[in-house]
Amino acid sequence: MFSLFRRPDVHLKRVTELLRDAQINRVEHQAAAEHHSALALMYAQRAERLEAELRGSLPELLGAAAPCSNEAMVEIEAQANPAPARPRLSSL
Length: 92
Description:
By secondary structure, this protein is mainly alpha-helical. It has one domain. The chain has 3 helices and no strands. The mean pLDDT is 80.
């Protein structure tokens, strides 16, 4: 272990290898971050389009000509996506 400090060339070689690995990892993670950022933007735009489509369809679903209120929107979303049932705890 302490022989590393007696031979500075071995220590410098190891530090150089670690630096190269760190730089490669940084580039790889930057590329992954850019990819995930693009996906997040794509899904945000998709959600906006789907929400707009849903808002446009709600009056037809409710049988009303006027745009629906937020309460009606929440109610329809709750009906479309019911909450999952909670598992029952077994008694011991």
